[in-house]
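Example 3.2
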Amino acid sequence: MARRRRTVGMAKSLRGENELLQYNIHPLHETLVANTEPLIRMEGVSVRRNGVLLLDAVSLAVRPRRIVTLVGPNGAGKTTLVRVLLGLIAPETGLVRRRNDALVIGYVPQRFQPPPALPMDVDGFLRLAGASTAAQREQVLDSIGAGGLLRRPLRALSGGEMQRVLLARALLRKPDPLVLDEPAQGLDVHGQQELYALIVRLRDTAGCGVLMISHDLHLVMAATDEVVCLERHVCCAGKPEDIGAHPEYQRLFGRDLAGLAPYRHRHDHHHDLHGDVVPDPQRCSAQGERRG
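Structure, written as tokens:
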């Protein structure tokens, strides 16, 4: 039995036309997660364009209150996978199953650059998400640390501000799950830390499932429940603390990078959207107690 449990806890290499991805989790939570119906799942999905195989029998699932991070080299098919999930590309083989017909997917693109002459403020941009009140739009901005941006012109936003506005637009649709394509693109390391921490809070407070594409391996490992390595097919999948030792992960990213421990950022302040330091009394107090 002990040997079996150790085997279940290891990251598994998966490839098969009809094989569903089985995620590796702590034994105490294994039954709970296995019995939770996925919000959305792919089953043996393959995509071919102009004779080139972009996805090969890919299976994965996104469940409530779970962050799944998709990693892989350029050209691995990550963006193609997201487009299949969004219904923008029909798979050549395989299926995409949603928990119900009313499921709403919130999508945050990799980048959005508004035209310089576009006469639109943040409020007008958020109204494009659908029916909402000004109070609701302001509240969702406040909830993600972007309060005060409602009347700002889109063209005047920094990269970090724009990413949060895109996230607010997705959240206004009351989605489940959220799909984030390189959400920390163009942010400095402090902005990345704050954004990933925000995504974790959204998982915990809103209870939504999250599928995230990322290249920030060292940072994102601390902000995810599951990692899926993609190179047109699923090379390996598992918990962040296990996946770094998997041979396929090391093959994709190199032993030096793959061996990095999950990054845990702890100090007595955080950074606002502009990167400025903002003292955090709770963190200061907690660190003082640990030093004492």
